[in-house]
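job 3f2a | input accepted
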Amino acid sequence: MMKRLLAALLAIAMLGLSLTGCYTTRRVDQTSSEDTADLSSSEIITVSDDGSDEDGTSDSENSLGETSDTSGDNTTSHRQTTSTTTSTTTSGGNNNITSSDPKPDPPGPVNSNPYLTFDKFYSYGARHIERAAQDYWKNGYMIERIGESSRSTLWPYTIYVEAVGERLDADPNNQAVRNEYIKCLNTFEIYRHQRNDGYLAYSSATTGSRGTGDRYYDDNAWVCIEFIHAYQRGFGQQWLEKAEGVAAFCYSGWDTGNALGIPGGIFWMEGSKNEKNACINAPMAYAYALLYEITKKSDYLDKAKQIYDWTKKYMMNPPVEGQQDKDDYLYYDRVELKNGQINWDRTARAYNVGNMISAGVKLYKLTGNKQYLTDAQLSAAAAYKRFGMEIKRNGYDCYGFTTSDAPMDTWFNSNLLKAYLELYRVDKSATNKKYVQSFQTALAHACMVAQDERGYVAHNWKAIKEDNNADMRGVGGTARVLFMLAKWVKGYYDK
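job 3f2a | predicted structure (495 res):
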């Protein structure tokens, strides 16, 4: 009897193995094409021996377990190089993740979308930014890329500080994070430009003790906003005063004439009247709105509205009656003098529209003027269509970003997420929630499959890209997004 029982059990086990053998786990690499230019990724899909997914979808229909609508646009940002990503990691991409960390989940009930139930953004963000602190801090300053020894320029350094600040918001009682943020704030002083005109300005580079090089108004706008946040986080009046000083410097770049054939607007950099850019005017509209909210100084509200109105009038891509353009309600990048000619660069970028959404939301809250909110809603809808597309991952509704995997886009997109969250706070509609969830699903996927052995989540948010020369803009931008999402899943933005 015992022998027959053992034989039966052995037969059942062999049958199970043979059935399991009917399915294989296969990595499918999708390279960029004109229609899915930047959704290149490597994903794990279970397919049957006959070439169909377990749900019956053939490989020719869906080589990645992803399908998309046709509303997404895949235009690559200029000044960047688009590259095709090839995964070099083991299954899942999580080479340095403990057994307690989440792994990619198999398809399950529709109401348990693992990309929406994922709640480990903080732990992934912490691992990501802590490794960055190890790799980028060198002898009292920060480098810009791994493997380099030169000091970081101001812009990438500010991105790192933004990420640490977002982590502190997500974990306010963490003394180590608080100390790191204080160190970051104080290190801005090595970029400070020595001047005697009363303005507080920071240079693009540093000697290690003082600023050197050009002063870009947009670099200073990011510093100004971070100083405002430092004050809001309770680090003292000095940071508000510094923010006001930097804001005054940025506004000193306002064109009181008619340069480039356009009256008004803030120039891109000190000492040059060759460019007016959305990347300085949009964040300064937001910064002045924040300063008014704190100080109630009417001049700040006047400046916020003036800069906002200028950017909307001259930089927004206006809708044409009877003609729907994919970039309606987004913003041109800049107008410049190039080769003796005035040139409009109509490239739409996520951080430009993001900062205008944030400024519009803030001005709506401060003034009650619903046109600001309408502007923000129209731009948010346009950005959702322009910078990504709705897709399927393992049968679940997700969102894939279609901009370049260059590291700048990571930070550009972080400004858009910030805007979506600002908009959600004043209008908790299902539509505005969907915008935030586009980031939630994209980054949940990235945490599951796109983390390298150092602890970095890949810049492209799709699959691992080995990059020993990782750029702080991408590293810091991704960390910033992870910590904002950590707050989102904990209900921080519902308060």
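job 3f2a | The two ends are 67 Å apart (CA to CA).
job 3f2a | closed
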